[in-house]
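FIELD: query
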Amino acid sequence: MSRPRILRAVAALVGAAALSLTLLTGTASAAPFCGQVWGSTPEHSQQYDRERLLNVRSGQHACFDRLVLDLGGQDTTFGSYDVRYVARVAEDGSGRPVPVRGGAVLQVVVHAPAYDDLGRPTYLPRDPREVVAVGGYATFRQVAWAGSFEGQTTLALGVRARLPFRVFVLPGTPNSDHTPRLVIDVAHRW
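FIELD: result
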């Protein structure tokens, strides 16, 4: 074999190897590592506070979808909630079922009313059937309002399937507009 042919063959092999390495590296970096060790059993805390629900919002992340409940009241902490998969969520007060899209539904109960001591709303969703827009999310299908009654507020979180989730509280900052937040993350997959 002549020297130019050998050089072309070596160059082709090096190019193919570089292309393979680029494709492998590109593929690996496109799929984030999602090593969550969450479960699907109920999560709850019973540290009663006198907080109020102020807002509900959501977000998308590489490995999970997130629901955030902004709370406010007498201090910078919050700790009274119950989040669990249920067959159906009942409307607070009436007990009527709350219809929700998705293969599974998480019932989110916070011991924080969406009204003040005089009964004035501190949070009122524009559309109780679509509390936040979650169209195009990987896991969330719908967030529906189930009501606020007798000191607690309930939401129905429709998800694609019964997937692992976690719940945690972020404390507020004293003397600021940063209030405590209840965070619910639902993984995109097991």
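FIELD: remark
The CA atoms of residues 143 and 157 lie 5 Å apart.
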